[in-house]
């Protein structure tokens, strides 16, 4: 289908149906451009909590749309492609996590928002990469903490907060793929560059970073720092907003281990959504996210605690 036709139809349907399009920074440029709001996980959750639209089209991955539904039981929440998963969420199953949690009955369970509603329902509090440190620090030091599902973010938090966290062994396939050797090579050729990394990256990448933070954190850092060249260690979708916001700065995507053709990392789960699927989903009002009410209420509690602290 022709792109300009898709854009005009999406805009028409959006108005007709009082729908809002929320998009993550990792979505394709087309989707970021047509979205009403583009943000990181925390900003998107907050937006989903306050919108007065009847329909939320969540251009992101499943756990993000599911979180929007948990916060908005009476709204229709749509996801352009229902198969938009996440290696972190998909690698932490309810029964395994329940058994893991049972080994540490006294621990406070903190879960990264990149997990299913079933895992959130087993949690005391949820966090995102932009508030994780604050959430950990809000827990009295007398309490031990179990953190899931991202071991890289968990290790980073452990160092930052000087707390010994029990970690679930999950990881993000995109952020784990950055090559330290290639990063060092690029840095040698650009010695004045600053490295900005997402905390889902491995510790050897984080050790090289001048700034570590969420996608919005990285954007703000690059926007406000005086350096003119930046090496960006997160998913490549963020480069679109950066190119718009700071066109005068040089942005070098951190290279992946297996990446010989393109210098950047893309999340295949995020990129499964397309403009055409977005149009179809708005037109057909599906795929729609649905969640059992008992589970929703259980998962809502740790999300609400997070939002109150953020
Ligand atoms: P942010 O919270 O930084 O948007 O990260 C979400 C995510 O999935 C990173 O891979
Ligand atoms: Fe999940 Fe990683 Fe993709 Fe983010 S980039 S959605 S953590 S697989």
UniProtKB/TrEMBL annotation:
Keywords: 4Fe-4S, Cytoplasm, Iron, Iron-sulfur, Metal-binding, Pyridine nucleotide biosynthesis, Transferase. PANTHER family: QUINOLINATE SYNTHASE, CHLOROPLASTIC, QUINOLINATE SYNTHETASE A. Belongs to the quinolinate synthase family. Type 2 subfamily. Pathway: Cofactor biosynthesis; NAD(+) biosynthesis; quinolinate from iminoaspartate: step 1/1. Iminosuccinate binds at residues 24, 41, 112-114, 129, 198-200, 215. [4Fe-4S] cluster binds at residues 86, 172, 267. Its EC number is 2.5.1.72. It comes from the Bacteria. The keyword NAD does not apply. Its cofactor is [4Fe-4S] cluster. It is an enzyme of class 2 (transferase). One of its GO terms (cellular component) is cytosol. GO terms for molecular function: 4 iron, 4 sulfur cluster binding; metal ion binding; quinolinate synthetase A activity. The keyword Iron-sulfur applies. This is Quinolinate synthase. GO terms for biological process: 'de novo' NAD+ biosynthetic process from L-aspartate. It is found in: Cytoplasm. The gene is nadA. Its main location: cytoplasm. Catalyzes the condensation of iminoaspartate with dihydroxyacetone phosphate to form quinolinate. It catalyses: iminosuccinate + dihydroxyacetone phosphate = quinolinate + phosphate + 2 H2O + H(+). Pfam families: NadA (PF02445). Binds 1 [4Fe-4S] cluster per subunit.
